[in-house]
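Support reply, case 0932

Customer input (verbatim):
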Amino acid sequence: MARDGISYFGIRHHGPGSAGSLVKALQELQPVAVLIEGPVDATPLLPLLASPDMKPPVALLCYPEDDPAATSFWPFAEFSPEYQAALWAVANKAALRFIDLPSAARFAEKGPEGPTDADAAETEVTEEHNEEPTRIQDPIGTLARAAGYEDGESWWSDIIEQNPAPGPIFAAIADAMTTLRDGEGAIGKFEAMREAHMRLEIAAARKEFVGPLAVVCGAWHVPALQAAHTQKSDQALLKGIGRRKTTMTFAPWTGPRLALGYGYGAGVVAPGWCKHLWQTRGQDDASVLWLARIASVLRAKGHMISTASLIEAERLARALAAIRERPKPGFEELRDASVSALFNGEALLWKMVEAELLLGADVGEIPADTPLAPLIDDLQRNQKAARLKPEALERELSLDLRSESGLFRSTLLHRLNVLGVSWGRLTDVGRSRGTFRERWMLAWQPEYAVRLVENLVYGPTIEKAANGRLIQMIGAAATLDALATLVQSAITAALSDASAAGLAALEEKAAHSSECLELLASVPPLADIIRYGEARKTERLAGLLERLIIEGSIALPYAARDLDAQAAGALMGALRKADEAIKLVEPGEPVLEAWRNGLAAVLDSSRSTPLVAGCAAHLLYEAGRLSAEATGDLLAKRLSPGTPVADAAAFFEGFFSGAGQRLIYDDGLRGAVDAWLASLDEESFVAHLPLLRRVFSNLDNMERRRLIEAVLGRRASLPAGLTPAPDGGEAWRRHFGLLAKLLAGEPSNG
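Our regenerated output:
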């Protein structure tokens, strides 16, 4: 819509339909200058968008030099109208400028004044300075509801993005926004300042250039930019504008960070779908190509997708679009059709591919000579504060978490590890309760700077980036134990936002989880969090941990039934680690009793896998729930000649795996094992030597010697109470000869 040689193009940020219509309009208009909504002081950086080494999504990043944490981002995707406008201007040698408030105006003396995502004003106009009420929360949504749509995304997609005959789009948008703004009254001061500054910049450009001008801005601003205002009144609005010195650069961005679901106010619901629309613009088979992509993703995951099913899905999507009175199938229709025709109605299967398809996995690239200041600068400040100089050679660093400096250094190193920058490698976690010490090995590698740059997508400071990355990982975590480990990392690194998100996700996941192995695997990391509670001043998770222990105890007897070797080994490992963690945190007696009852139920069940039953018996013995006499009787029964050798061997391994030292001191246990070994024929004994080697592998040389002496005596005499075999004990002696070699670490030659 043109006035006085100025054409105003109201667009939706990151709308592929807006971008396509804008490029056509610019080609017809051939403006001498293209003016874009964006910080005016970033104008010198605009041509970089057209660099052949610039691969969107990228974001213009701005932060005050004295406070990098107060940062604003202006993201650009391949399908963003502003990005396409910049490409057109550079290619056609038109002047290219930003016209919005300078970046410094977004930061008050004590913090940011405007939205963190600078272009969020298109869908959410906020005003924080004077506590004025928000006037417009979602102008597009308001129009959509008036048209009978449930949300603004669907309305905009049908009318703008996928309308086969849209007509004079930009004039219609301007008229709609004018009507909408007329009914809303005054806007906030910050938005009024932005629009005043854009009007002044447009007026200055009108005086400078001869020929048509193109103004590209969020649709909401078009009526205000066209309205009559005096230069004096606009300048009065801008009096006292902030003048803090700021730094600006480009940073790589990601596809998912363009989504509304990631908290981006001007984002779109499905960035992956928007990219698909842009890349297939003008094609009639866009829906067919999208279904082909769905099939490709499914086939890559091992699912069989037939051509007939794809044809049926495409037909169903078109039928759904007709029923819903939409011009053509959108991603909602294609999703519903895919669930029906490709997933046999199982909506949960769609969740497997939804993020990959709708959000995408794109990561932008920026030219090599682009300044990479924010994270590097923040790291250098932290290194100086921590008095840690990056060195290429390894050096050891011991930290005391009770001191302020020690805790600060530890927190910095943990945060860098979250970002994949392994400057410090933790060599001694300190497994004892109440430990306040950590031992690190430091070595700086040049590629760590590159990794920091890659993490700019999560934030401009070490703390913000680590928070952002962990929050994303928490959102993607599929199991309870993975969530617990991430929460442990967040609390250890003092990342409050990630901790809050992780704890909320952990609570929700725990409420819905009934998988025993998952429940047990989540206990050790939570126990470690509680152990670090005093040193890191974290809130305790005792209630959640106790609930997980009790739920795991209830599920344990059923989880231990009829397992194969791999599953039994995994459950045994989880049992031992969970038991160690429970001892570490010392929960209340009711929790301990529930845990022991669960172990006892495993031991008493005839369907329990012998390996897991043996482990449960050992844990009960260690806890004092089984007496030495009762345990000796149990072993004698479980290892008796009447028990299948495979079951006896599995029970033996479950009982003694990682606990072979007990045989040195416990005569009753040792006697039961001796009796079992003596009952084996030679072939069975030799067959089980690898098992015995695994059981005794954790013993050092001194412990092996002491066990040999305990079994054979200092003079290698036979243990008392054993009756020689009919052949004079020769076979028995051969057994113990092999066992002695095994314990001594010598080859058995068997």
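We compared this against your earlier run and they match. Two observations from our side: The CA atoms of residues 454 and 668 lie 60 Å apart. The chain is about 55% helix and 10% strand. Please reopen the case if you see a mismatch on your end.
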